[in-house]
# Entry
Amino acid sequence: MIYSIENSIIKITASTHGAELHSITGKKEGTEYLWNGDAKYWKYHSPILFPIVGNLVDSKYRINGKSYELPSHGLGRISDFKFISQTSDSITFELKYSEDTLKKYPYKFSLIINYIIQENVVKVTYNVKNLDNKDISFSIGAHPAFMCPIKENEKLEDYYLKFNKKETSDIMELTKVGYLSHKRKECLKDTDIMPLSKELFKDDALVFNDLKSDKITLKSKNHDKSISVEFKGFPYMGIWAPKSGAPFLCIEPWFGHADYEDFTGDFKEKEGSISLTVGEEFKYSYMISIVE
# Structure
């Protein structure tokens, strides 16, 4: 089921499947800023990554000595959420544990996703609640894909990313199968600009864990339309465009990341994993804004 809300500047739609944002449209010119989900390239728009971010080694993980299996990015993006409420400027969905989820992720939880629009901004809030009688562990992250190019007759190389602070930062290198390798590679050096090209993503996503910036803007050299992601407090950032040359770019704030290739520990020991005690909640937001 698809739900929509709008104001005088933007209109958004979101689905109960995955609680996924499907569209962010600027009403001034009818410009679509979110990726359209063309399955020829990538069938998602803005999936929610929960209770893992990225890949597990052999798609498996352990909790208290017992092995479980999850696909890349977990079960949030492939689950049907319950529609909770809608107002003139907000939509709320919830995913609660079930017999099915407990087989793959053995914790009792509630995951509430809330979208609020205010002027040209979409605020996305994640609220994870521990409904179990023991501590629970999880990771969570965003994976919004934005049209890039935004306008026709442009190419990826016409675009760049603008960070809100100057950065000197390495990336955490990924292996060919999507695990982290412990190696680092120089990426940004005393700059707030990252020119975009297919070559930049030849080895998959760029994964950062030491950015000073908490806002990244996708901008064109040819016009003033832009998309910004503000991610205050998120410790990891992934930036990805497919090697296929698909016309989109992802700016992904994360709590957590893919397994290191040699990780053999318990899930709660995984770097970036969040733990909640009984009855405790985790609540964090990020914001997407457009400039028409």
The chain is about 0% helix and 50% strand. The chain has a mean pLDDT of 97. Residues 39 and 147 are 14 Å apart (CA to CA).
